[in-house]
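notes to self, project folder thing:

trying the whole complex as one job this time. last attempt i did each chain seperately and stitching them together was a nightmare. two parts in total, labels are on each line so i dont mix them up again. if this works i'll redo the older ones the same way
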Amino acid sequence: MDLTFVDAILTKHNRDTRSLLAIMQDIQEEVRYLPKEAVQHLSKELSIPLSRIYAMATFYNSFHLEPRGKYTCTVCMGTACHVAGAPRLVEQLERDLKIDSGKTTPDLMFSIEEVNCVGACALAPLLIVNGEYNSNMTSDAVSRKIKRLKKEEGGA
Amino acid sequence: MTKFTSVEALHSHREALLATKKDENKKTVSVCAGTGCKAVGADLVVEAFKAEIAKNGLENAVHLKATGCLGLCEKGTLVMMPADQTVYHSITPKKVPTIVEQALVQDGRADDFLFADPETGAKQPTMNDIPFYASQKRLLLDKNTLIDPICLDDYISVGGYKGLAKALEIGPDKVIDEMKKATLRGRGGGGFPAGRKWETCRNAPSDKRYVICNADEGDPGAFMDASLLEGQPHSVIEGMIIGAYTIGSDEGYVYVRHEYPLAVERLTKALEQVRASGLLGENILGTGFNFDIKINKGGGAFVCGESTALMASIEGRVGEPRAKHIHTVVAGLNDKPTNLNNVETWATVPLIVEHGADWFTQMGTKGSPGTKIFSLVGKVNNTGLVEAEMGATLRQIIFDMGGGIRGGRPFKAVQTGGPSGGCLPADKLDVPVDFDTLWNEGSMMGSGGMVAMDDQTCMVDVARYFLDFLKFESCGKCTTCREGIRRLHQLVSDVAEGRATEETLDLIETLAETVEKGSLCALGTSAVNPVLSTLKYFREEYLAHVRDKKCPAGVCKELITYHINENCTGCLICKRRCPEQCIAGENKQIHVIDTSKCTKCGICKDVCKFDAVEIY
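result (full assembly):
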């Protein structure tokens, strides 16, 4: 793995260990997860123990330690979405994609994720696919959405 | 961009702006570009307006603005004409030509897109006619309708940075006096008077002090702070500069959730502008006062909304709270005196400094002056952001502003204060909403989240939802919080899944007391509120789960079954869509669900057009 992008990020933050969270966020921004090699490199370059970086990576929910799918299907689990039936959307995704929430399909095409609240409660329940908001979703609409995406991929 | 080297330069710039505006006599069109409206296509509406305005040659006669959240997210995309406060709802690009023709070319109103009374059909053209807006007191949110969030001149022309100018004029002592007199209580949920906090921080001996804006709005179902940062980032920045000047700080941080990309983007732009115009950085307005602000993005940990955890996170560590034997105003970030307030508190500061404490305390109640923004969500007709005077009743907020419960269903409960708050039943609807009253009723104001619930919401499920949330979000430092919430979740799950006895309910209450007493920070001590308040006010519903093994609201999966009733026309749709293939039936005959195979996914109910699928 080419780690020059990690060096660039380190330089941007003046190699300041106090910016560790921001550095890790920038790495993830680049490759959408925290690759093991990048984390090891970070540990060596900043002279901080691997355990501390992994503590950060597992404490903060926004970090991913495994590659994510081409389509990230995020279900908002805020209170408004919950009372409007968000858990059923997650179950539907799990059924349709045959993976658990938080996981990625083996072909690296789809990931299911949950987010605490994105503050778009008027649209509840909400499914976000790669940043695109799908409002007032139902289990049936989720199924149709996934089918359509699979078809697009199959056809391409 | 003009660089202001003195307070006078800022004032004369404002006067020049207002004079030009008067001369130009342009009509303004505000299109809501908050997160909610953007999600339903506000950007396309803005583009459509641009094209249509150009087509009609109105470029020099119309000022088009993409503003912050206008509040009524339910009816997005909202479009407003600030001149007479006409509001149009549910606007799509297709409707734009009509609005441009009728409202801008002909100078009338596009009647078809105005709000209307749901019963009489009478049009409600302006904000004063629409009950949602008319019953609010929009001290802060009004600015969202008037300004382009990332246009500094817009903010200055509506009186922006007047508060800062006044603070620099009267000096820190007088600012503290005004702030103390105003008794502005922390809008993040703690309710601690900001003036006293500032004073302690200012008096703490140190050569370095910090100010922090807590924008880690983690309560699910709350987006007040997001809308302020998106709609008027300059209000927050101005408040922070005043705070830093008063306290004697030269370094500030905004800790904002990474889930709010739009807020981060607008805040970043606003900071660039104030730096370029001499309102931030070295020698602010030529007074010799230096102060700068950095943005820190959160990592998606709820506990980082707690002040000491937040500071640990800025220091590049895991966000674990610490005991506050020594308060953060004495030893906070980097062990230096640190004054932390939340977004809404900071945004209110410039108004208090500009207009004075006496003006501020006229609003609200004696113990909680001013206004408060609530995000009103759940099963109400008008989902959105409302700003009410402190002391307004829950009924006013939910029924007058919120338009009552969706589909005419009965009101069951309102959840206030997020995961730390509680649920209040219908007979508490006339309770005035302020810091102290809600606390006494077993709930809390929190940061202003308000979730309305109808008879199809199960209170056991709501309690379980919050425990599940907190179980995951507990940082794990205190045993009572880490293990206690986990066990509470298990016990409430037993209730929801029909394994519990009445003794389980007693056990829940005993354990809740331990969790409350044994935890360090507010996450643990208040984690028990949702379960205790629902047990207090909705015990019958818990008992139905325990004794009858029934979920009256039809939510708890283990206790419900799906049935098809005689409304069924035998259209075969549910049969085709059932993932378990457990629906039997022929064309034009009533279908039957094989309950032994049914996984209760609810798809049949979703797809049925005849309301024939029932839950028992």
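what i see at first glance: Chain B touches chain A through 56 residues (CB under 8 Å).
need to look closer tmrw
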